[in-house]
Amino acid sequence: MVYGCRFLIYDCDNFTKSFYYHTFGVTEFQTVDVKQKLKDLPKMVIDLPQPSVFSFKFPI
């Protein structure tokens, strides 16, 4: 946990492997395939109101 949140280390370099070995005694590191396609996220649509009679346009 980092700052109270769970996280996943899916791959790491030799320095990180060495750190985990010396700090936590971890000797087995399996790479996790995370290249699955994420589902498309919905797009945000903002409906702007039409200008009213009280709207004012500044001259350019």
Automatic annotation (TrEMBL):
InterPro entries: DM10_dom. Its main location: cytoplasm. PROSITE patterns: DM10. It is found in: Cytoplasm, Cytoskeleton, Cilium axoneme. Residues 1-24 form the DM10 domain. GO terms for cellular component: axoneme. Keywords: Cell projection, Cytoplasm, Cytoskeleton. The lineage of its organism: Eukaryota, Metazoa, Spiralia, Lophotrochozoa, Mollusca. This is DM10 domain-containing protein. It comes from the Eukaryota. The keyword Cytoplasm applies.
